[in-house]
């Protein structure tokens, strides 16, 4: 049966999908307004991703796949062959991948979907068979993501409890938004926080504001309040002081792309948090699905960092409000930075926690052992 994402648990939902229809929660409007935008096709999906209606590495991959699924579900009579149907899907997937460059989940999803399409071509008798196979595969991505996030949460919470001197009392600092809004549900780093809270061992979650787009103050704070998790918002610049006061047991962040040596691209400001954590002897963890790992890259130097509009920095509300910075100033606005692996204590995945053997991560070996395909 095709999933109806609206009928699942009572959590915030970035993606509302029923076969043939997709609505994305407009995250630019949160927390002031809850507005869902209808997405009819790949072009709507591309714009929604580029304009940050939907954001967060797993969510953009799923939203892209479903936008195309909706487009083909609503094609009445496709005028072409089975091969042309496959080419149509592949071309649209390439287009969707061009919306944002840093998160690997999007290109990873496109690669996996293309493999499924090319297998479908050999057995399809009419183009509609190829479209249906694609739609079903996109729907599986939506369903699998929540289960994957719950596994990340559970592995992460158990691991943290094993590592900590006081396994009954945690205060965790997180950055950006990695929760239900950044995924199909539950979240990655926020999933670990959720799992610690469910176990009754979370004293407090701290979330950074996450300038300039304010994913922390607008989205993570919103989710934490919604879930009734004890939480405090801090300015990005308050993180070092918070750590110095001994108020943080661990830092947990998400990832947009993890290179095979463990270097991790995530929201701008992540690197500063990792440096501060190292200085204060606080463990720093990345929580991400295996689809965020890019084994084709040997290090983080090869990761393309998206630069976004100056407006996000010059104006309030991540560029959506009025201008507050001096006119005429030039702006550098990278959306992500790369945290070197030597600052990372562990990478929490849906298949377990990747730790270092000696000084380095062996992520290729981990992926081989758990038998999961990643973007190679
Ligand atoms: O620019 P954004 O809001 O898409 O950036 C999001 C992040 O950096 C998240 O930490 C990352 O995508 C992981 S989301 C589970």
Describe the structure.
The protein has 376 residues and is an alpha/beta fold. The protein has 2 domains: 15-145, translation initiation factor eif-2b, domain 1 (Four Helix Bundle (Hemerythrin (Met), subunit A)), CATH 1.20.120; 151-370, 3-Layer(aba) Sandwich (Rossmann fold). It is built from 11 helices and 16 strands. A 7-stranded mixed beta sheet has the order 6-5-4-7-10-13-14. The protein has a 4-stranded mixed beta sheet with strand order 11-8-9-12, sandwiched between helices. Strand 15 and strand 16 form a beta hairpin. Helix 1 (42-50) packs antiparallel against helix 2 (57-73), helix 3 runs antiparallel to helix 4 and helix 5 (127-163) crosses helix 6 (189-198). It starts with 14 loop residues before the first strand and ends in a 6-residue tail after the last helix. The mean pLDDT is 95. Bound molecules: 5-S-methyl-1-O-phosphono-5-thio-D-ribulose. 5-S-methyl-1-O-phosphono-5-thio-D-ribulose binds at residues 55-58, 103, 176, 178, 182-183, 188, 215, 254-256, 266-267, 335. Pathway: Amino-acid biosynthesis; L-methionine biosynthesis via salvage pathway; L-methionine from S-methyl-5-thio-alpha-D-ribose 1-phosphate: step 1/6. One of its GO terms (cellular component) is cytoplasmic stress granule. It is found in: Cytoplasm; Nucleus.
Quick rundown:
The protein has 376 residues and is α/β, with parallel strands linked by helices.
């Amino acid at each position: 049966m095709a999933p109806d994402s609206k009928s699942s648990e009572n959590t915030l939902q970035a993606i509302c999908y029923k076969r043939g229809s997709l609505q994305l929660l407009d995250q630019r409007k949160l927390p002031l307004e809850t507005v869902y935008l209808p997405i009819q096709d790949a072009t709507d999906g591309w714009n929604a991703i580029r304009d940050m209606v939907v954001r967060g590495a797993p969510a953009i991959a799923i939203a892209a796949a479903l936008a195309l699924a909706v487009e083909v579900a609503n094609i009445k009579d496709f005028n072409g062959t089975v091969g042309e149907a496959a080419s149509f899907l592949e071309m649209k997937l390439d287009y969707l991948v061009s919306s944002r460059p840093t998160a690997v989940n999007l290109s990873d999803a496109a690669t996996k979907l293309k493999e499924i399409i090319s297998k479908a071509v050999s057995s399809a008798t009419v183009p509609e068979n190829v479209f249906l196979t694609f739609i079903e595969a996109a729907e599986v991505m939506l369903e699998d993501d929540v289960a994957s996030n719950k596994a990340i949460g559970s592995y992460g919470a158990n691991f943290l409890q094993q590592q900590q001197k006081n396994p009954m009392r945690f205060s965790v600092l997180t950055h950006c938004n990695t929760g239900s809004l950044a995924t199909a549900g539950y979240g990655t780093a926020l999933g670990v926080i959720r799992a610690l809270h469910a176990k009754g061992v979370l004293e407090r979650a701290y979330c950074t504001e996450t300038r300039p787009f304010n994913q922390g103050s607008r989205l993570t704070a919103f989710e934490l309040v919604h879930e009734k998790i004890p939480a405090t918002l801090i300015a990005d610049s308050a993180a070092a002081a918070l750590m110095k006061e001994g108020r943080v047991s661990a830092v947990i962040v998400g990832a947009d792309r993890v290179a095979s040596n463990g270097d991790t691209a995530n929201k701008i400001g992540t690197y500063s948090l990792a440096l501060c954590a190292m200085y204060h002897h606080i463990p720093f963890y990345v929580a991400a699905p295996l689809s965020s790992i890019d084994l084709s890259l040997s290090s983080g130097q090869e990761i393309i960092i998206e630069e976004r509009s100056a407006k996000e920095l010059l104006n309030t509300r991540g560029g959506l409000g009025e201008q507050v910075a001096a006119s005429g100033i030039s702006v550098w606005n990278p959306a992500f930075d790369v945290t070197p692996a030597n600052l990372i204590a562990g990478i929490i995945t849906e298949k377990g926690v990747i730790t270092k053997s000696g000084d380095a991560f062996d992520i290729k070996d981990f992926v081989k052992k758990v038998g999961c395909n990643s973007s190679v």
